[in-house]
Amino acid sequence: MTILNDYNLVSKLYGSVARGDIHSQSDIDIILPTPVSSTRVELALYIEGRTIYQRRITQATPNHTPTAHLFLDPLHHQCISLPLMPLRSLESEFYKFGGLISLNDLLRGTRVPGCNKRLMLIQPTNQGHNESPIQGYEPEVAKIIGIQLALVQQRVRVLTRREEIGRTGMLLSHDLHEGEVFEEVLKRLADTNPLVKRHIRRKK
To answer: For residue range 50-101, what is the model confidence (pLDDT) as tens digits?
Structure first.
């Protein structure tokens, strides 16, 4: 995060590190919440000597914004994500659902409530954290985290379905080759994928 902020690329940390329920296999997930040139991000990492092991574009559903991912380790535990178009309101709150903090929060040792993929609400305490179920308490969870109830209900539906029938895949998951630029690849993919193209047209 420090690297990106040093280059005026405002970033935030989300997930277990933001909530405080970390363990040895916890991912480090960083999001740039507003679209910026992917080349700027990659250049900042290159200048600081960081290696990008994989670059990928994903889009979960036709209604989701295509997102660029930069993986900074071979096992994909460290990832920088940046939307390739402006996020919708619910999409922005998706990151807050899992716990979202700024660089200053991180430096101060601040932790925030958020939900994990096991549909548990994590609430930090001075001694660690408390866990409680989300299902059946969606309005309370939305109030605690400070997000729309509709998002909590949506995440419960998605994660429950994933638990019951397994991961159903994504609309788009495309790995980039050396020398390719995210924004150019997205335009090319839109030419061959009408669902991706439709989303881009709606954003214009």
So the answer is: 999 999 999 988 888 999 999 999 999 999 999 999 988 888 899 999 999 9
pLDDT given for residue 163 in this prediction: 58
Q: Coil, strand or helix: which one is 163?
A: helix
Rounded Cα gap, residues 195 and 79, in angstroms:
26
* Residue 28 buriedness (CB in 10 A; 0-12 / 13-18 / 19+): middle
The identity of residue 50, as a single letter, is R
State the Cα–Cα distance between residues 167 and 162, nearest whole angstrom: 5
Distances (CA, A) of 13 to 21, 23, 79, 165: 14, 16, 10, 30
Cβ(1)–Cβ(9) below 8 Å: no
In the chain, the amino acid numbered 175 is D
- Identify the pLDDT of residue 61: 82
CB 67 within 8 Å of CB 81: yes
Question: What pTM was computed for the model?
Answer: 0.88
CA-CA distance, 198 to 63, in Å (whole number)? 9
Residue numbers of the chain with a pLDDT score lower than 70: 1-3, 5-6, 162-169, 202-204
Q: What is the DSSP string of 86-125?
A: PPPHHHHHHHHHT-EEEHHHHHHT----EE-TTSEEEEEE
